[in-house]
Amino acid sequence: NKGRYEHYMQKEIHEQPESLTTTMRGRLIQGGSCKATTVLLGGLKDHMKTIRRSRRIVFVGCGTSYNAALAARPILEELSGVPVTMEIASDLLDRQGPIYREDTAVFVSQSGETADTLLALEYALENGALCVGITNTVGSAIARKTHCGVHINAGAEIGVASTKAYTSQIVVMAMLALAVGGDTISNQARREAIVDGLYDLPSKVREVLKLDNEMKDLAKQLIAEQSLLVFGRGYNYATALEGALKVKEVSLMHSEGMLAGEMKHGPLALVDENLPIIVIATHDACFSKQQSVIQQLHARRGRLIVVCSKGDAASVCSGGSCRVIEVPQVEDCLQPVVNIVPLQLLAYHLTVLRGHNVDQPRNLAKSVTTQ
Ligand code: UD1
Ligand code: M6R
Question: Would you state the pLDDT for residue 67?
Fold first, then answer.
């Protein structure tokens, strides 16, 4: 039921404050003498020791689910101290890449039925790894075949383009990072800031959804473009990949997400006054590096759209003209949840304006059950 919305994708974008609340419900437990919040992921509690002791954590997924894992990787590395590697499911299978008994392999899938991810799971099971699922679908093949896991509880997602599942997946993996990391004196302040950030996230997402009209206006300006680049780095490398994936899969406009640190190693040659480029430059440890990327793009007369933290407009766009989209700032590792929302809205409006099918894009299926 689409309710008051015209399309499922639109409904699912706008219901993210609620889906995120459901994802976290019952999993952040406040109390005890020291008032600290503990994270309870019921499905993992009997396996936490094994996960903490593993030699490596390997994320496996496809498409948006892979991007969500990429967004969560830095915080999992930081809090757990365990090396985290990334595998696109089909590539792991193509290479028959090494998976060991000492590994924890985490399979991320909205549907829980994606053929490549499922085959990669079978491969990891054969190789003796602890296999953890992060799925939205209770009773799905991946939920059944993994040793343990977490349901993201985002509610049914109908639109082929994954939106609310993406943000809920990131939140589950941030909670996973808190759970695996455990309590130490040295990371106490950081943990508290992340927990506070999680509690605040639904209201920050509600706030960023107010950009709807602004993103529609931007979509009108971009309607006839051939191509759109998205540059991000650090926590928001994933935002660049996921924003570009949304734009290409529904609006049928060519779009590529790129690591800003790679700009000088090739993509810079594409920059001219015509090609629109979105730069994600919200405030975090990479901010000054992104400012210098923006300056270099200005120097080549790049046509820039900058996503920055509220209040940073003047400092991101000094020395050139650009369109600025200001988003609320949250704890750095949760910022990808906020930052993807304007790009989801842009992809949605571009698609409607270009007259394409939003909920069932050409040639795509919601669940890719063949290889
Ligand atoms: C569970 C209940 C939830 C209830 C809560 C109360 C289910 C599906 N969930 O949620 O309704 O409100 O207890 O304490 O009944 N699993 C996998 N692979 C996956 C995903 C999950 O093996 O990909 C397993 C988990 O290890 C766990 C079970 O499925 O054994 C349920 O997972 P999850 O729903 O995340 O657990 P809870 O949040 O504890
Ligand atoms: O159901 P899954 O999360 O395993 O699906 C993985 C991809 O097929 C999926 O995310 C795909 O990239 C989406 N259409 C993206 O919006």
Answer: 98
- Low pLDDT (below 70) residues in the chain: 32-35
For residue 143, which ligand has an atom nearest its CA?
1
Q: Ligand 1 in contact with 150 (CB < 6 A)?
A: yes
Q: Is the CB of 43 under 6 A from ligand 1?
A: yes
CA distance 149 to 84: 17
Q: Which residue CA neighbors atom 9 of ligand 2 most closely? A: 63
Distance 369 CA to ligand 1 centre (A): 24
**Shortest CA distance to 218 belongs to which of 180, 253, 191?**
253
Give pTM, 2 decimals.
Answer: 0.98
**DSSP assignment of 62-77:** -HHHHHHHHHHHHHHH
Q: How far is CA 179 from CA 61, 208, 246, in A?
A: 21, 28, 30
Answer whether 239 contacts ligand 2 (Cβ < 6 A).
no
Closest by CA to 208, choosing from 254, 239, 244, 247, is 239
Q: What pLDDT does 37 receive?
A: 83
Alpha helices in 182-275 (DSSP H): 188-208, 212-222, 237-251
Cβ of 40 below 6 Å from ligand 1: no
- pLDDT score of 129: 98
Instruction: List, for residues 136-159, the tens digit of each pLDDT value.
Output: 999 999 999 999 999 999 999 999
